[in-house]
Amino acid sequence: xxxxxxxxxxxxxxxxxxxxxxxxxxxxxxxxxxxxxxxxxxxxx
Length: 45
Hints:
The protein contains two helices and two strands. The chain is mostly helical. The protein has one domain. The longest helix is centred in the last third of the chain and has 21 residues, at 22-42. It is elongated, with a radius of gyration of 12 Å.
């Protein structure tokens, strides 16, 4: 899995998702949710 520079975002290709264990899927979801929450909080005025 590749990480984009300066972010915790991971680029995930569909076949990789099916090869992941449930724990790996949870980790990816947690990272994506964290990024979304941080972005929303940073964009609040």
